[in-house]
Amino acid sequence: MHLKTQRTFHELRVNDIAILNTYSIVAHDQGCTLFVSNLERIKGHFDVPEIPMKQVVVSPNKDAVYILSITGIVYVFDASGQKQKEISVPMMGVKRIGVSNDGLVMLDGRHVFYFDLNTESTEPTVFERVPALDVGFTMGTFVLMCASKIFLLKESDMEVVEAFELDCDLQKLCVLHSEEKMFVSNENNLKLFSFTGVQDEFTIPFKISNLDINDTDSRLYVYGEMSEGKLNIAFLEEMDGKYQLSQ
Question: For residues 119, 120, 122 and 123, what is the CA-based torsion angle, rounded to 10 degrees?
Answer without folding.
Answer: -40
